[in-house]
Queue: 4 jobs
Job 1
Amino acid sequence: MSNPEAIPEAIPEAIPEANREVHQQANREAHQQANREAHQQANREAHQQAESAYFSVQQLTKCFGGIPAVQDLWLEAKAGERLALLGPSGCGKSTTLQMISGVLRPDTGKIFLEGRSLNLVPPEGRDMALVLQKGLLFPHLSVGENVAFGLKMRRIGRAEREKRAIAMLDQVQLGGFAHRRPSELSGGQAQRVALARALVIQPKILLLDEPLSALDANLRGNMQELILRLQEEIGVTLLVVTHDQEEAVVISDRIALMFEGRLRQVDTPETLYQQPADETVARFFGGVNFFTATAEAHKLTLAGGDILTTAYPQQGAVQVTIRPERIHLLADQICGTNLLPVTVIQNRFIGTQRHLALKTAAGLNLRAWVPPSLNFAVGQSAFAHLPPDALWCFPASDASVSMRVSDLSASVY
Amino acid sequence: MTRKIVLLLIIGVLFLPFLPLLIWSFAQGWYFPQLVPDWTLQNWSDLLTTSTKVGQGFGQSLVIAATSTGLALLVGLPAGRALGLRNFPGKGAIKLFLLLPIIVSPLATLMGIQFILIRLGLSGTIIGVVLVHLLPTIPYMTLVLSSVYANFDPDYEIQARSLGASPIQVLQQITLPLIAPGVVVGALFAFLISWNEFLLTFFVGSGRVFTLPMVLFTALQGGNTGLSSAIAITSLLPALIFLLFSSRALNDDAAIGGLGNV
């Protein structure tokens, strides 16, 4: 594992000798990073599966003026999968999308779709359709002409074109809008037309760039539903790029989380919430409870002497986290394990939940999000139950590395 | 109602200076103390005779102005795009540099230009005149188009390409229609600058290239006020036709980019 040459060795014969030089160099630099072990493993696994994956991105790197925007990115998707590329602004996710769609040329790395390398394929030949944040309907064309644009570029006859465009408009619930001008549409309608325009060409991959962020809250829900329903009907592979973790969680099967040009964790939304790879990931997904402990298999000894049991065995100094909504607050001591006596020091009602700030006897601060019916007065004593399967830990040494990033991501909120 | 009156006033003020021209062009002579001149159609029928060279001048002006406009567009479109959409070191200096032909009097540069054109054998040819007309037209065109492109969202092009359009198709179907109003303005500027150019044509044409301003100059020198007025009015025609034709394109709200901050 420590041998930096290990990965280039595994690259298939197809890569010319000259490229291999660059390859090795890029890899070597990448390896100087802190979490190299995990990295290499991920790389190797990704590479082994790359042959069989429907869509895959390998070792993608792009620099702007010597500053890396995307570094050594590996990603893959199964046919019909919904994948989200999530990260704070400036993390390189848009650059990645541009490289996948063919607008930008990667410095190194490869992009495969159905086993075919796309590196030399121009955007119009990639069988991918892009929906940008602003919708961007062509203002000089009618709604119908906008939807039929991709078909026209594919030299499909006028009659067939119109038939398919109108059918597609019906599918996004905009039947009868074909003759309107884009300027006559609302933001939500324009976004739906943009979706229809992308789907009518039957792309292999639908690329969505922040599809909901320009819409107001109540339209978002409708649009999410529409995207999910159409995706299920058509079965298109979906790649969503977004900075909004809620949007990513709702739309996708798996989320690829990016920080500073690198992938940090690729997992299902549930895993990212419950079992984040490190504190930065946890904080990005709204994690607020972090404390240090010493782990001996399932036993966690907190700094104040309290002892908790976790479902996930660890050894040594660890950083423990628990989702605020997983903490149960009880007025009485009813079950024995993982129960900490606490005092309520803050109570904020936010409609669907109550956000409570708690302090244990040992001085540990916790935040718990409880149902609004559970009303605890400030200063009241209670018992916080931390379920063993909700207590997740990662090695404490990671914390120092990620602190730098977490400061950055905290400013995003 | 008041709006109409104001509009009529504006039109009146704008067109009043042309009134004496119009009268002169229909007059045989109009001297003090005559209140009304002796009317004649002689000046206008003279326009059509070959001896006045008006027909030839009109034709040559048209060819030269159209060619310079076309060439200026060819240079201005990519140059304007680069200045409008990209950031690169020295961009401000280049913009200033573009203004040089407008700032520096052509009188200062004409001798040198004439010298080089004679050596190239282009002096006194239409090609030579077109070349020197590019001197003022290219900067105007580039500056107009750079502000047009600055208001153009290149994401439209990315969007079109991802939907299957080749770069040529993107240019034809998306970019040009969207920047059309700005292109029309730029072309109008360039055409009129070339159409009205006197000094450059006078020097480089060496009397062999005979555009409408040259014809007008000759007529004025000959002291024929009536014919001069008729030629002057004729020389206004293309601009008026162009304006009428382009006003439709300029009014089209759907076409974005538009005039930008021209």
Job 2
Amino acid sequence: MLGLEKKDFRLLLIVIGLTMLAPFLLNPFPEGSEMAQFNAGYPDLMQRFVIFGIFAIGFNILFGLTGYLSFGHAAFLGAGSYGAVWMFKLLSMNVLPAIAISVVIAGLFSLLIGYISLRRSGIYFSILTLAFAQMSFALAYSVLTPITGGETGLQLALDDPRIFGVSQTATGNIPVPALFGLEMRSSFEWEVGAWLFTFNTGYYLAALFMILAFYMSIRIFRSPFGMMLRAIKSNQTRMSYTGLNAKPYTLAAFVISGMYAGLAGGLMASMDPLAGAERMQWTASGEVVLMTILGGAGTLIGPVLGAGMIKYFENIFSKINETILHGWFAFLPDGLENFVVAMIYPFIGKGWHLTLGIVFMLVVIFLPGGLVQGGQKIAALFKRSKPEDAKPNATEPAE
Amino acid sequence: MDQFILQILNGLDKGSAYALIALGLTLIFGTLGVVNFAHGALFMLGAFVAVTVSNILTLSHKVVDETRTDFLGNPLQVDVPYLYDWFGQTAGDAIIDWAVPISIIIAIPIMVAIGFIMERGLIKHFYKRPHADQILVTFGLAIVIQEIVKYFYGANPIPTPAPEAFVGSFDFGVAFGFDPNAIIYPYWRLVYFFFSIFIIGAVFAFLQFTTFGMVVRAGMADRETVGILGIDIDKRFTIMFGIAAAVAGLAGVMYAPINSPNYHMGMDFLVLSFVVVVVGGMGSLPGAVAAGFLLGILESFASMSAVIDILPGINQIIIYLVAIIILLTRPRGLMGRKGVMEE
């Protein structure tokens, strides 16, 4: 179906189902209940899930398939969002041209950086991309202020010369990004008993793009081109001995993943029309590395899971404070309660980065295939009937 | 001319920090072949050893001072460091004042121990894994160390002053026959520069003139043969890891008065130190040191207003720009050895 094998098509259907039903799935707890703080079904966070999902899917095409570890991918995301905001400022508030231009700009930018960086491999490639990204960040922050808005970031203003559309709405406000009149921030709220579900236009647009991106990535993974990329990862020397030049393939993978990052940046700007230099900083690049590895580099669904998990931790877990913890463990005797809270508190709430770091290290050490591999291992434990020799096929991530 | 000298001096202290961190990175890389992204965290830990030592030295208990009253009219409670009780006020003050130099002595065993634990506990298991895995696991470790420090010390920079004797600036102008006040340089930065020269010299002397160092150098050149000769090279490399950690830690201790330590200072330095190592040449110790000073000085020249007028923003990107040019034109870096990390 759609040029996919049955297994991949099922995976695609699952992803479509999950993203479309996300407003329900992420809001399992009724409003006002004790557990309501674990609800992640509000538009802002759902948008972030899918946007960072796109970013990580793109990164995975480069790292998961070719094994080239880029520490500068955030630069493309940043470039994409700048491009999108400029489109809003100059052309129109319609999101489609903005997203298109952000992909194009990020593609060109990654072509330039990739062409230079890919002359080296291994650690040198990582450092070159890191250097380029830090350079872009420093420039965006200082000299390029007329284009990037410098420290304050690039924002819409009341006197933007918009060619199609108006500079100000009738009420004197800045118009908001929309898709042919459908405002990105508009939501439909549906109350069912104690539950409140929010269906946000921006989220569904971003989700559509993510499904498209996911579909593209499956196609790339299963194509002869994807096979070439895997060959680069497993043995580049042997590949060149067979008469194949690895460089164009790697560069293509780099540009594709740069365009994915640009798409994510453009969507980010469409949801909230501003762009700042901090999106380009190397810590932001590090974040997408974390997402991809955590979920499972080289697997199809892994990066999306990793992105979702990190964003969930960042937004939900980090809000748990000491009072809430005391509430949870109130059933324990006082001394024990304080002890348990004191033991747990450093790892959640504001300390969620610590948990993230530890989990990440554990994944790198024990599960090179990420959480997806972990899931497969657990599944294999329950499938006792399968003989031993069936295991390698099932558990190995793309190598 | 005086501007010229001033910029060189300004570059030296930053260059010293780069050189020290890059030296440690290269030591680890040259011996164990591991790319250590947690090295910046070691630098930061060193700075926090200084913070901890000065916190411990100023541990105090409350004493009611009968002669003074607080705003409510009650007798005033004064914090008196325990050191006053033990050594008297003058000696106690002197010890507290010299907290940072004292931390150096304490930092060495602590950092060596941390290095040992890191190598034996974690990095040992990653020798056979790809470089990308090494980068990732040490990157994760760096995050964990950072967050632990953040948990205990908070997110704000903690000012850690240098001893009174080194506060203030040295007027180079007078000493070298320029106008007074033309070249002013803080004493502590001078101290930092000489300290780093001393450490670098000590590491080189250790490698060059001791039997241990000779074995380590032999191991760097050809690990397998040294192993065949019946020498337990792994043990020696572990010790070198400890030394590298101590070098990074000492760089951090001494840097605390220059820049108040905060939990992410390590990451800020790490990126630059990697660039330094690559420019100097992976695996080359003299290259790392030379590139450290060179880039430090280049950076301070680039921030001269005369240069910024011609090329705006150059001070922000000069180091990266140099790194990119070097990597593309001289793939081995300035003094890189043949055969190191050349895939």
Job 3
Amino acid sequence: MAKKLLLKSLVVLAVLTLVAAGCGNDDGDDEVVAAFVYVGPPGDAGWTWAHDQGRQFAEEQTGATTLFVESVPEVAEDFRAVVVDFIENEGADIIFATSFGYMDPMEELAGEYPDVVFEHASGYKMNDTNFGNYFGRMYQPRYLSGMAAGAITEANRIGYVAAFPIPEVLRGINAFTLGAQRVNPDVEVHVTWTFTWFDPAVEGDSAAALIEAGADVIAMHQDSTAPGLAAEAAGARWVSYNSDMSEFAPDAFITAPVWNWGPYYARIIEAVASDSYTPGAYWGGMDDGIVALAPLAADVPADVAAEIDEVAAQLTDGSWDVFTGEIRDQDGNAVVAEGETMEDGAMLGMGFFVEGVVGSATG
Amino acid sequence: MIRPVLARREKVIPGTQAVAFVVGIAVALVLGVVLLSTSGHSPAEVYERMFDSAFMGSDSLARTLERATPLALTGLAVAVAGSMGLWNIGAEGQMMAGATIAAGVAMVADGLSGPLLIAVMMVCGVAGGMVLMLGPALARSHLGVSEIITTLMLVYVAIRVVEWLETGPWKDPDSFGFAVIEPVPEQASLPGLFGRANIGTLIALGLLIVFWLAVSRTAWGYELRLAGSSPNTARYAGISLRRKILTALLLSGGIAGLAGAVQLTGSATRLESGLSNGYGFAGIIVAALALMRPSGVAVAAVVFGAVQVGGQSIQTLGVSSAISDILQAMILFGALVAAVFFNYRIRWTGPAGQLPGDEPEEADLAVEGA
């Protein structure tokens, strides 16, 4: 009896193993497997959450299998290990890496695995065959969110909790400030550097300190909700980032510039599935829907809300862009002449603060 | 009141350390079955992947060695200080300091040939770690300031310095404004062994052997251990505690600094604020697993490296990083607890207090002359 049972279990085990092995070898033939490497947890409600929403959207849209690993440190040995496992054990055809620090090891891996497509968010490296990069013109909805914040602030002092003094963040602060100045020329934007993308304690403390110093609106380039919680607790207002975070601080929330990665992910997966992928340096804006503005709070004045809609329409149809002159830097020097619009190259390397920002552009 | 105290076993049975490792890990793996089953994973599949990714095939083995190398060096750094009863909690920062000086010298000396440049960078790495350790070491040896706090605090100083260099003076002009430091010169890459393993592993192994011999087989090592375990005896024997503290801490900092240089010329392509990647802090666990003996560090580092590789790999199977972290922690904790119980025993002390022969063996280090 016992022997029979053992034999039966062994047969079942053997069959299961064969089935499992079969599954493992099958993929890659007809179905695309897209694997995502996240720098944080999808539960952050911020940066990684937005990418994970995009992954889920793309999976529904294309029927591809998607996989992800969260909280992967931005060092070669960690990133490589995850990607090699994805490719060799899970049959991944596309790797999406969603943080800047993965760039160097991704470049190496793209050379080692020519049959796999590598797409890197927020970086600047690429090749001609299987390695591209992608990002969005977040400065556009940031400008719009600045308009809303400029209308709401009564102290004319907005606090901005910012991660690192790099062009992406400087561009966002400048766009936000220009937007706020459009509706409120007296506004000042005070910047605090945290030197972290995701550290709720530091971000919350920075926001609280800015409020203590007189700011009544907090904006942020951070990945947690902590600045919003600090604003809510202090009775101040808040412009979140990455996603609509209104549920975390319903009274403080004004609006948010948000990411919408899904359509891009779906497009790349479909291109790979149909063998029509070519790498590029994608930098889409509101015209492509990869960035957008979350709904406005009810107390944003109707005329400002209408103006935001108008500007959003211009940004979407391309008739106007944010960094159109005249724009002066902190020292009063004209950096963009009247009527001229900044080139992409200059925007990507932005290293200054516009007039009205209080803080150091070099950290 | 009767209370339990841990007392070191008078006779440690040879080989118990290895047995402790195996028993501890086995217990943790059994508990892990519950964890994995309740979170909806097949324990057999997960464990198989863990083992395969760390040990099966040369690429896997190389991956484990790639991680074990910085762990062995930081573990050795902590153990060298630990063999004298000192705690270097700041190996993470010394690693960064070593990598920073090594990266700096590579910028000005990028005309040197590969082997020479690498050698210079290694020496600078050691120097960088020592420089960061100099303050805490002097404060400990001359003023009696706890090195635990000072070494830890300097970790954040070292990381902040790299962040400042990244966004300021060392920003790569070819990076389109991105805050990155220029890559180390091509010729400064450590030669590979197989897969991702490089000769950094051999450097670590060589150093482990040197320190194992020095600590356990030389008069210098004997004095070091004596100064740690019974400072009064050492002082009576004419050993300068001050000098011993300085030497042990500076060596410890230097080894951690070397780990930074090895990492910079090995796995990394450039100096980054994330380069130390927690290896310095993990080195404390490695040294604890090795019971502060350089001889045990190699094994502990490989085990730790394998657990990290396996823990990373099972996440591509769909195991969440939280479950993976818990599993890794359980395995290491199991090994650690087992090691403690194999080397110590519980003794119950009575209300009368300690008996004359009962003084704790790890007496506090008194500062000479203070």
Job 4
Amino acid sequence: MSNYIPTIGVEVHVELKTNTKIFSNSTNGYGEMANSLTNVIDLGYPGTLPTLNKEVLNLAIKAATVLNCKIRREMHFDRKNYFYPDNSKNYQITQSRTPIGYDGYVEIEVNGVKKRIEIEEMHIEEDTCKSTHRGTKTLLDFNRAGVPLIEIVTKPCMASGEEAKAYLEKLRELLFYSDISDCKIEEGSMRADANVSIRKNESDPFGTKAEIKNIGSITNVGISIEKEIERQSKLYDNGETFKPQTRRYDDKIGDTVLMRVKETGNDYRYFPEPDIPFVYVTDEMIERVVATIPMLPDERRKLYIEKGVPEVNANKIVQNRSLSDYFNELLEENTNFKIASNLLLGDIAAYLNKEEKLITETTLTKDRFLELIKNMEDNTLTSKNLKDILNKILEDTSSISDIIKSSGIENITDDSAIRDVVRKVIEANPGSVEDYKTGHDRAIKFLMGQVMKESKGSANPKMAMDILVEELQ
Amino acid sequence: MKYLNKSVLELHELLKEKKIKPIDLVEEAFENIEANKELNAYITLNKEEALKQAKELEDKEVDNVLFGMPIAIKDNIVTKDLLTTCASHMLDNFTPIYNATVIDKIKEKNMIIIGKTNMDEFAMGSTSRTSYFGAPLNPWNKEKISGGSSGGSAVTIAARDLPFALGSDTGGSIRQPSSYCGIVGMKPTYGRVSRYGLIAFASSMDQIGPMTKNVYENALLLNAIVGKDDKDLTSAEKEPEDFARLIGQDIKGMKIAVPNYFMSDIVTKEVKEKIEETIELLKNAGATVDYVDMKYLDQAVTLYQVIALGEASSNLARFDGIRYGFSAENPKNIKDVYFKTRQEGFGTEVKRRIMVGAYILSGDNAKVYYNKAMSVRAAMRDEFKRIYKDYDLIIGPTATTTAYNQTDSIDDPLKSFMDDVLVNPANMAGLPGLNVPVGFDSSNLPIGMHIIGNDFDEAKMYQLASYIEKTLDLNLTPGGEK
């Protein structure tokens, strides 16, 4: 297979997290009984008119801001006219000529290389209803009709499935963190289409485009793009050509499948929506929205690492919004952030997963967490002991020291008691002692392990280590 | 005993003094409509419900001047639990579960809906002959058209069936039939009245307005239906006002412009002369009347065709047989659902207009026609604004002719557009326009004067119209006593 240069552009539809729909006061909800979240406006009844949900505008301004887009100050909506049963008015209200955001970018990193993914435009539109095909019949659920969407369109600026994947992960993180959308691909609140073409040289015009529609996961976006590049390369290698087309990714066969060849001249007869007057975005509106944007993931990661959190931990914390928000509360404090991150991602995360709780739903207030960190830091509490009292720490409100005391697992800090154990271990393991003395550092770890084992984990590890080194001299 | 020939104020007094009950008016309205059945002014009568409502009102305080008054509603205004057909086979089974905002408003006043009036199908026409239910007839001469599209509302008022009707006006559909039938019809400023529940024809022009026997009662009904509506983003933020407040005031010093185009050869001699007579009357009363040149007026019909039909092609797309209304039988596939439903459900004129509108918005045509029309439209509005710097009101004839024969020009689709040449500009510019009768032609058919006001200047239009009405003191009851 020859080498071609792939060009990839991605279009993403994201459902906005509003209480009500974009053009009516129906509830914006998922998973409810079919057609229970509808009214005469959503159903396109004669004489009904759209209203405009202000929250949609706010979230779109927010999205434009976090995607580094310029924000249009004077805009209108347009009608996209086409007949389809999922489209109650047989036109969709969207923004064609005056998208709210334009000329933005998102920064990604693939294999250590940073790249800006340029965003051509992002616009506001309404979602269509959900069609379910059953044999010769099609069932329509209008709960989704009129759910607010933003569509984010990149320039054709990506060169691999990996980049597209990284872009989508970044996008999801940004939109999720800014409370713009749930970004749940499996529930359809984030949907991605990729346009893929290849060419021989940078100087060649773009190759014929294939659009891959509605890919079910971010991983599959990466895979499907690579598969599509492979498919197109083989065709060109064999001297074949193909028509612009729409394909879908079939997870079962792990490849893209032809849906339809694109007809030229798809005519949507766009014109400005006369039922919605021009919308003006003021400085005040933008300021108000920007003030609600929380600290974004990149900044969080950077701060955590600066505070001594290992990079791998920093990344993991940021993947969990509630943990990260919780962690942010600590940043002003003088504490050991490495221990804090280990605690949160270790036993505490396991507990939260098991109990299906958020960290904020436990009794671990900031002050109690700081106390816990301190106890871990000065070895009053060992990791092993922690496991025994974790439930109490997360479910009781008493102080950490009280819990430790009442649990009777306070570790041995009595010098002579520890020294007895150490001596016993040294006696029982002459081989390891010999190894240590001949410079095998690993031996001391083994001996230390034996000390902890002998003391049933209750010896203060720091003291034990000091005494062990002393006794080995 | 007959009451409905009395003025609304008199009826109001009688109701207040309990000398009559709302049911007397409702029963009389239905008797009148029955006697005038031949005029075909109604598509649906609301008899049972109206009588029930009238009964219920007997225990209530007569708290406003419109209380208990019978009213007819054009059948493109959505009425809860009452068939709303738009004079189309497409909706001849459509009973809405919601009210238009104007309906809620007149119900708040305890007005009683008598029925839904005949009209051109989807308000597309200027003769009411495109109605699926047959054309209404002009009470002045049954051979003649009523005008349209609010023909049924004009006819039932002219025939003195009842005192109030609502119409809608996209390109003259209130004013032109009002002129042909000799009544007062007001198209308010765009945004003055909520369009929520008005089945859209051309959204950027549609406006609901009152149709009545006289100017004062017209203002009373307008008082009741205006106001900012949260359900209609194009409705205007305006404080309530009494539109009748200037009625009876002197018009001395009023500055009035007559665009030369409105009095050009497009208007018949008889109509023109009657308007000139009225202009003399105004001058005698101390008003200044100047003939002025205005650009773009001759473009209004072309603009209207492009913009109104473009919007209509999109607005009427929702009628697809899937969720409500007529649905063709035994479709083979989804395309068939659309094709057959729309083929069988819509009449010829509606289909023609959808086709032209879709063409206008297609591909590059949108730039060539629609965008161009929108920019000329803005220029036309500026042209009106230029005139209003120096003048209070603009006047001219409402229609180029009086009502013509039911059988005339029936195969000429362009004729129906040209009927509205004088009334289209107000829709294009979003300005209020009013018809007031000023006399009759040699065949005793009414001639109307068109008054175009500046934005939200309806009160001043009523002031002038009322002066004309009072001074001329015409007998406007077809073939009968005043």
